[in-house]
Amino acid sequence: DIVMTQTPLSLSVTPGQPASISCKSSQSLLHSDGKTYLYWYLQKPGQPPQLLIYEVSNRFSGVPDRFSGSGSGTDFTLKISRVEAEDVGVYYCMQSIQLPYTFGQGTKLEIK
Amino acid sequence: QVQLVESGGGVVQPGRSLRLSCAASGFTFSSYGMHWVRQAPGKGLEWVAVISYDGSNKYYADSVKGRFTISRDNSKNTLYLQMNSLRAEDTAVYYCAKDLETWGQGTLVTVSS
User: Fold this and answer.
1) Which of A3, A47, A54, B9 could crosslink B107 through cysteines, CB 3.0-4.6 Å?
2) DSSP label at A60?
3) Which candidate, B81, B90, B79, places its Cα nearest to that of B12?
4) Residue A99 to residue B59, Cβ atoms within 8 A
5) Which residues pair with A30 in a beta bridge?
6) Rounded CA separation A80/B77 (Å)
7) Which residues are bridge partners to A89 per DSSP?
8) d(CA B1, CA B25)
9) Beta A75-80 vs A19-25: how paired, if at all?
């Protein structure tokens, strides 16, 4: 199975400041079709996960442009340009290049 | 808009069975692969199973293979998860998800004697 490793596991950010989460996979997520199957989700307290970013860097419908994703191969990053109070929750990366699909451990974001 | 509503969760004894349902609306259900993902209390996300748009292909996590069966009824816009031989470690909120893009609110399954 592909192991997804997120760092840090928690971070505390002042509103208006940037935040960054790293996700590393144990194998390349680059498919022969040219796409890289790396997703980012946010799970707000008491809610189901919501998709933020698909295929490394594509924002899902309705996701604010302060969220951005980057990376390639096995190293990926989610960045929030200016954290807002509504961004609190747990962020997960996930790979879907190989079954079973696997998630990172999650990164808990809190507001200072 | 896309709506997914899970049902069928509850408290069940170890070794017993339970069937979860996921009612879909707001999109062409028969055109999309569907997933079940679970989350144990206070833990992270674990992918459970996927079924192709027409039901012809199904894949499972090793932790549930041979005990759980994913299925769908495209005429009823409904996804199912038949869970047999339940164990304490199957206790979790079970989410259905359209193509892993949109998720339901989840249904809680508690396996306890």
Assistant:
1) B9
2) P
3) B90
4) yes
5) A36
6) 37
7) A109
8) 8
9) antiparallel
- Find residue B46's DSSP bridge partners: B38
Backbone angles phi, psi at B64, to 5 degrees: -125, -5
Rounded (10°) CA dihedral B98, B100, B103, B106: 100
Confirm if B33 and B49 have CB atoms less than 8 A apart.
no
Partnered with residue B78 across adjacent β-strands are: B23, B73
**Chain A within 8 Å of B53 (Cβ-Cβ)?**
no
Dist. CA B33–CA B47, nearest whole Å: 14
From the CA atom positions of chain B, what is the Rg in Å?
A: 13
Cα A28 from Cα B30, distance rounded (Å): 31
User: Tens place of pLDDT for every residue, chain A, 112 residues?
Assistant: 999 999 999 999 999 999 999 999 999 999 999 999 999 999 999 999 999 999 999 999 999 999 999 999 999 999 999 999 999 999 999 999 999 999 999 999 999 9
Question: For tokens 């879909």, what's the residue?
Answer: B24
Nearest CA in chain A to B39: A48
Instruction: Assess whether the previous peptide bond of A49 is cis (omega < 30° from 0).
Output: no
Q: Is B44 on the interface with A (CB under 8 A)?
A: yes
In order of A105, B53, B59, B104, the CA distances from B56 in angstroms are: 31, 8, 10, 23
What's chain B's length in residues?
113
Establish how many alpha carbons lie within 13 A of residue A76's alpha carbon, considering only the half-sphere containing its beta carbon. Answer: 33
Nearest CA in chain B to A49: B103
Place of tokens 């892993």: B100
